[in-house]
């Protein structure tokens, strides 16, 4: 699947995605993944930053509230950018939202102190090119921190196994080494109610699977040095309060990576 086709799918998803995520249906993001990502983020007060694949801007705004001197954000979907700009207009945080491609960033070399990418790079048709582009726009000493679905525990085949009480006890995985380039997955946020599912179509999201070793090779070939991995796990209390994330107590669904430009 090429970049233009992938971008069209994300544009098709954007209206419903924005409505559902802002209604609180993205429990994995709000309860677990984003808090863990922000907890791993180094101090950024006074730095200039870039968010790649910003969507409707919620996570960008979380980062901006930590005090960057300037924040830019980019996404392939004009609808996502329209919603992000509207939120910025109503509550300004100094973020410039731009329509653009992660694999061809519209910025000059060495113009950002850091970059973040929340659950984006596994959806890019050429993640190796996107990482090279991010390295290009980082200043020496700058860092990239990104989250993706975990290559080891969310490969092309994944199934959560549950006991009679519905409690997850194992994750069945397969096809780890299969190169997937643009398979369309059809799905909803788990907590979207039935009446809402009847009103709007499900998401159709392209996926581009790479193994863990391929991700490491992409980062290193871009000239970045890996500093830290994170694998968010729900606490017992969170799993009881939000059962949808209980599977992360068995095996991580997400991988967080921070790498720095020497």
Description of the structure:
The protein has 8 helices and 11 strands. It is α/β, with parallel strands linked by helices. The protein has one domain: 3-Layer(aba) Sandwich (Rossmann fold). Helix 1 runs parallel beside helix 4 and helix 5 packs parallel to helix 7. The protein is globular. The two termini are 33 Å apart.
Order of helices and strands: HHEHEHEEHEEEEHEHEHE
Specify the CATH homologous superfamily.
Vaccinia Virus protein VP39
| Inertia-based shape | globular
CATH first level = Alpha Beta
The separation of the N and C termini measures 33 Å
CATH T-level topology: Rossmann fold
Strand content: 25-35%
Approximately how much helix is present in the residues?
A: 25-40%
Enumerate how many helices there are, as a single number. Answer: 8
> How many domains, as an integer?
1
Provide the gyration radius in Å. 18 Å
What is the topology, as strand order, of the major beta sheet? Answer: 3-2-1-4-5-11-10
The largest sheet, given as strand count, sense and whether it forms a barrel, is: 7 strands, mixed
CATH 2nd-level architecture = 3-Layer(aba) Sandwich
- Could you tell me the number of beta strands? 11
Mean pLDDT: 96
Task: Please describe the topology of this protein.
Blueprint: H1 3-22, H2 27-40, E1 48-52, H3 58-64, E2 70-75, H4 78-90, E3 95-99, E4 112-118, H5 127-137, E5 138-149, E6 157-162, E7 168-174, E8 180-187, H6 194-199, E9 203-209, H7 212-221, E10 225-230, H8 236-241, E11 254-260
Parallel strand pairs: 1-2, 1-4, 2-3, 4-5
Antiparallel strand pairs: 5-11, 6-7, 8-9, 10-11
Helix pairs in contact: 1-4, 5-7
């Amino acid at each position: 699947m090429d970049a233009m086709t992938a971008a069209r799918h994300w544009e098709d998803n954007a209206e419903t995605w924005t409505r559902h995520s802002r209604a609180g249906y993205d429990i994995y993001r709000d309860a677990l993944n984003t808090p863990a990502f922000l907890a791993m983020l180094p101090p950024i007060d006074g730095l200039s930053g870039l968010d790649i694949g910003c969507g409707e801007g919620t996570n960008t705004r979380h980062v901006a509230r930590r005090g960057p001197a300037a924040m830019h954000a980019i996404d392939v979907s004009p609808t996502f950018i329209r919603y992000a700009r509207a939120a910025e207009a109503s509550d300004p945080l100094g973020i410039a939202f731009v329509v653009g491609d992660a694999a061809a960033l519209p910025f000059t070399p060495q113009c950002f102190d850091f970059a973040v990418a929340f659950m984006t790079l596994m959806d890019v048709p050429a993640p190796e090119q996107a990482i090279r582009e991010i390295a290009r726009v980082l200043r020496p000493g700058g860092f990239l921190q990104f989250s993706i679905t975990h290559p080891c525990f969310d490969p092309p085949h994944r199934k959560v196994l549950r006991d009679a009480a519905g409690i997850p006890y194992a994750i069945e995985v397969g096809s780890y080494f299969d190169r997937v380039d643009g398979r369309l997955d059809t799905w909803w946020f788990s907590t979207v109610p039935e009446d809402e599912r009847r009103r709007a179509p499900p998401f159709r999201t392209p996926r581009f699977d790479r193994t863990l070793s391929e991700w490491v090779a992409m980062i290193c070939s871009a000239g970045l040095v890996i500093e830290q991995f994170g694998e968010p796990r729900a606490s017992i209390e969170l799993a009881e309060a939000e059962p949808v994330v209980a599977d992360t107590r068995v095996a991580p669904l997400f991988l967080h990576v921070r790498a720095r430009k020497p």
